[in-house]
Amino acid sequence: MINGETEYTKTDGSQREIPMFGQVYDALKTQYAATGHMSKYVFCNQMGQPLDHNNVTKRVWYPLLKSLGLTKRRPYQTRHTAATLFLASGENPEWVARMLGHSSTEMLFKVYSRYVPNATRMDGSAFERLLGNTTRKEQHHETA
Q1: pLDDT of 70 higher than 70
Q2: What is the C-alpha to C-alpha distance for residues 77 and 106, in angstroms, rounded to an integer?
């Protein structure tokens, strides 16, 4: 929605289905239970109309960040957080790229690779172990 009007995505390629994870689904059901009788919108104002993005950002989003002691950032930037968390948890980069609406993983790696911590210990040690195990196996077969 932009200025109260439903808008199409920037490009046809941006049209995509995004999976809804369980916690999100549960939260939306709870919200709909509170507002479903007022409007076709899950999130609406007291008149049943869609929320105004600027109003929510200024009156809810920024004050929430401040109260949590977090750096001020636009709501749009949460997509970067999601991408980083998906990658850090080991999700397939091609899947993450599709979720973000990228046509390839090139942009994904260009933008996000520096933010992904080495949480999976992908630092070459797995390859070293493979080489070490292969060498030991070969040595075992040679001596047997």
Answers
A1: yes
A2: 19
